[in-house]
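A student in our group prepared the protein record below, which I am reviewing. What it holds is a sequence and that sequence's fold in token form. My question to you is simply how this chain folds and whether the tokens agree. Do not assume that whoever made the record got everything right. I have pasted the whole thing underneath without changing anything:
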Amino acid sequence: MKAVEIIRAHGAPMPRKELFNALAKEGLVIHGKDPEMVLSTMLWRASDTIVRLPPHGYWPKDTPFSPAQYDPDFDALFGPASTEPEGEIDDGDTDEDHPDDKPLI
């Protein structure tokens, strides 16, 4: 995966925007309405090889990163570092779809 190669060469986790720009510099074009969000979704779907370490950025899943207290062996015990893609996800669900739902607050 090109993203993992770039992150390893960088030597530290990379925020989405920085990784997006590095991939573009390598000639990788990501299409879509919001290409950075598309990248975020792609990285989330590659959860077997990459993790997001808030607030540091994306990092190879098989590599410890002590500043974030990340150790891949801990995933087996405590779950992944982050299970959500970076940014908001619009699932198309609106309040109008569920008029009987009451607000939580």
Residues 89-105 have pLDDT under 50 and may be disordered. The chain has four helices and two strands. The helical segments are 2-10, 16-25, 35-45, 72-78.
